């Protein structure tokens, strides 16, 4: 149903910027807007006239229509209702006296968010964005004043991603109110934005995740995320999972989670359970769960049919010899076996006999093809190990290369997303699917996510686990989802990091600093503040005029976020400070004790090695904190302090990127974990496992082991902030 006409009462109301902007962003074709001059109220409303004579009227009615067509109206009823709330709030921006109050409200709301609703752009963002932009100089003035940094960040981010569409709207409809100039953005690199686009050098105005899937139709797209249950989900898999969900939502299609369980030697129910846990952690919404093992009978039947058609054969060539012959383009001696001989050996394989265990099934493709993946790949191999899901029913299992094109087609997958490491095997996928006589599935390739100083091979990660180099798949040094979340990464940061990269085919080596910087922006505005002093060589400071009896004040855990709650701080005449801080103090120097006030250090005692062992001083609470050089954290000398273990981590390898053929075992980092004993304020008894906090002047931490008893330290994992050096000495 096409939109035949779009009109609004230009003489009586301003143009509906949000409708026009939403249509441009969604690449929805609108006819040139016309105006009406009728005196009736309804004629003044923005209107879509459709080719069948029907019409829709009203700014928010049209916005919701565009939202539903372009999948910009939330991913579930709750998100749609949240969007409705924002649409109802939008008119406040046009009320002059309420404008700054509205900006302040939105600024606070966006402290820890990238979008107004959920994890992707919606018509709520477009409506509020247009409401701000439509005020012209009023909003420009606020942007320059830097009064609303979170709103400006969000506003510029949207403009940057959709600059071509939004520039056109602004120049056409907001010119008289003052130009809307985006803050200077870093130039984006050239990106490949579509399947086989010959114009590879051209940049797109869309974010790289908004490339088009070939042949995709709204409502008819079906994708799959197909992990092998041989390890935990890591950050590279996360990119595949989130991109599949992104395209499923964008095209209002379906997403299937399929376990590619074709190798019982590596797979287990533990991995299945934890993969599902990780998928849930990422917020992946799928229609159903399937298993490649569901299709074992059909796969065996297909293999036998290909043998009968002369498109596959059974080969007993030893593995190493077979690999060499494939590399050299030499045909196997078994390639010319008769169908009868092949079927006989196939039955031996099914039975798992001694003879059968010597054999495999290979596709008869092209041993001379320059693409070595087409040189008679293996389709089936014997494996007597019981399958974690179906036991010992089978002695033979299909390879990924054989099973994947079959199951993709029969499950109704329309587009299979594969990382660029599979590029050379795409031709193999298409050829095998054609030999099977099955419906062709579109392949879409995206770049594999590579991180500096990081191993993403599950086989290599398994080595670390099995050799005791880490404490398990959820170790905080691991790039697994559970590992990085245990380290202190918020899932929102991971989602934002991955979707910012999008579905580009450009190979990239990403820095962890960027991810941790995003994470800091999310946790800093909300995480509570606490105090710790390193236990070793800690120095007492005696305040001779300090309180004779300890007293307690209740202060905020976060001065700018009431939601963090309150904490009790005890004030005494003897306190602890870090040895490193004590070494910086001079006699008669005025210092600031954070959350208390100023003090003047009168005496400094040192041992025979020159190390400070004791400080004495007096309070000077009327002193100005602006005049002191040292602002120190401190703890009261009481029995209520909590024992802490602060844990820092480093990369598992010492080289940014392994070269081809280079062994990770040659560049192992010998020192990847450092534990430091400390004392913490008494409020840290109440920390819960997983809670994120900031230790003043020491950084961000995640509570890995909460308080149980005084003799058992609370364990805090240090969270990188994108700036700190990670090398441990």
Automatic annotation (TrEMBL):
It comes from the Eukaryota. Its EC number is 6.1.1.17. GO terms for biological process: glutamyl-tRNA aminoacylation; post-embryonic development; reproductive structure development. InterPro entries: aa-tRNA-synth_I_CS, Gln/Glu-tRNA_Ligase, Glu-tRNA-synth_arc/euk, Glu/Gln-tRNA-synth, Glu/Gln-tRNA-synth_Ib_cat-dom, Glu/Gln-tRNA-synth_Ib_codon-bd, Glu_tRNA_lig_a-bdl, Glutathione-S-Trfase_C_sf. The keyword Hydrolase does not apply. Residues 179-212 are annotated as: Disordered. Residues 527-616 form the Glutamyl/glutaminyl-tRNA synthetase class Ib anti-codon binding domain. Residues 101-159 form the Glutathione S-transferase C-terminal domain. Residues 220-524 form the Glutamyl/glutaminyl-tRNA synthetase class Ib catalytic domain. It is found in: Cytoplasm. It is an enzyme of class 6 (ligase). CDD domains: GST_C_AaRS_like (cd10289). Signal peptide: none annotated. Its main location: cytoplasm. HAMAP family: Glu_tRNA_synth_type2. This is glutamate--tRNA ligase. It comes from Salix koriyanagi. The lineage of its organism: Eukaryota, Viridiplantae, Streptophyta, Embryophyta, Tracheophyta.
């Amino acid at each position: 149903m096409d939109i035949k006409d779009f009109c609004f009462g230009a003489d009586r109301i301003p143009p509906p910027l949000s409708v026009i902007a939403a249509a441009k962003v969604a690449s929805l074709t609108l006819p040139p807007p016309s105006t009406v001059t009728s005196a009736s109220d309804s004629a003044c409303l923005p209107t879509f006239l459709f080719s069948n004579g029907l019409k829709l009227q009203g700014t928010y009615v049209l916005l919701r229509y565009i939202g539903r067509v372009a999948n910009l109206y939330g991913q579930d009823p709750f998100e749609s209702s949240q969007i409705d709330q924002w649409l109802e709030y939008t008119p406040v921006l046009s009320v002059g006296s309420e404008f700054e109050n509205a900006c302040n409200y939105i600024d606070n709301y966006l402290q820890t968010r990238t979008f107004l609703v959920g994890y992707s752009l919606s018509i709520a963002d477009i409506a509020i964005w247009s409401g701000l932009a439509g005020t012209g100089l009023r909003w420009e003035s606020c942007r320059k004043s830097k009064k609303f940094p979170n709103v400006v960040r969000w506003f510029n981010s949207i403009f940057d991603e959709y600059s071509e569409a939004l520039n056109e709207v602004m120049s056409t409809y907001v010119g008289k109110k003052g130009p809307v100039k985006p803050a200077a953005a870093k130039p984006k690199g050239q990106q490949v934005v579509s399947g086989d686009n010959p114009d590879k050098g051209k940049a797109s105005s869309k974010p790289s995740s908004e490339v088009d899937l070939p042949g995709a139709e709204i409502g008819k797209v079906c994708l799959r995320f197909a992990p092998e249950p041989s390890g935990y989900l890591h950050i590279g898999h996360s990119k595949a999972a989130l991109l599949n969900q992104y395209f499923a939502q964008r095209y209002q299609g379906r997403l299937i989670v399929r376990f590619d369980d074709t190798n019982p030697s590596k797979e287990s129910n533990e991995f299945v359970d934890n993969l599902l846990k990780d998928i849930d952690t990422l917020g992946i919404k799928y229609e159903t769960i399937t298993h490649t093992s569901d299709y074992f009978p059909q796969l065996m039947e297909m293999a036998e049919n290909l043998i009968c058609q002369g498109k596959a054969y059974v080969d007993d060539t030893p593995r190493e010899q077979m690999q060499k012959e494939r590399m050299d383009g030499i045909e196997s001696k078994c390639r010319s076996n008769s169908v009868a001989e092949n079927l006989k050996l196939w039955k031996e394989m099914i039975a798992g006999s001694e003879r059968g265990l010597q054999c495999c099934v290979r596709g008869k493709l092209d041993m001379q093809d320059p693409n070595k993946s087409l040189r008679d790949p293996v389709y089936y191999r014997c494996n007597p190990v019981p399958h974690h899901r179906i036991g010992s029913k089978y002695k033979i299992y299909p390879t990924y290369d054989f099973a994947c094109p079959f199951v993709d087609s029969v499950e109704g997958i329309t587009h299979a997303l594969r990382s660029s490491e599979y590029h050379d095997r795409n031709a193999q996928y298409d050829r095998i699917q054609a030999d099977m006589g099955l419906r062709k599935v579109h392949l879409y390739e995206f770049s594999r996510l590579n991180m500096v100083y990081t191993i993403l091979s599950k086989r290599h990660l398994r080595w670390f686990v099995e050799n005791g180099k880490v404490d398990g798949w959820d170790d905080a040094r691991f790039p697994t989802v559970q590992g990085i979340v245990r380290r202190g990464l918020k899932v929102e940061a991971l989602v934002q990091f991955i979707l910012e990269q999008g579905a580009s085919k450009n190979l990239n080596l990403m820095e962890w600093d960027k991810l941790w910087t995003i994470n800091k922006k999310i946790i800093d505005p909300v995480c509570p503040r606490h105090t710790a002093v390193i236990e070793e060589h800690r120095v007492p400071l005696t305040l001779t005029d300090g309180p004779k009896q300890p007293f307690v004040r209740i202060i905020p855990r976060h001065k700018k976020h009431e939601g963090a709650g309150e904490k009790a701080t005890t004030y005494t005449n003897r306190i602890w400070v870090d040895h490193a801080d004590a070494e910086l103090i001079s006699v008669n120097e005025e210092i600031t004790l954070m959350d208390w006030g100023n003090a003047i250090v009168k005496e400094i005692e040192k041992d025979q090695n020159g190390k400070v062992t004791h400080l004495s001083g007096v309070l000077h609470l009327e002193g100005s904190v602006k005049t002191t050089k040292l602002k120190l954290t401190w703890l009261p000398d009481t029995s209520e302090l909590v024992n802490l273990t602060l844990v820092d981590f480093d990369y598992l390898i010492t080289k940014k990127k392994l070269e081809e053929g280079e062994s990770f075992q040659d560049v192992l980092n010998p020192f990847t974990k450092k534990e430091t004993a400390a004392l913490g304020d008494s409020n840290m008894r109440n920390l819960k496992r997983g809670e994120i906090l900031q230790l003043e002047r020491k950084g961000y931490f995640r509570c890995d082991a909460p308080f149980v008893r005084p003799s058992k330290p609370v364990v805090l994992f240090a969270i990188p902030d994108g700036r700190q050096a990670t090398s441990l000495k």
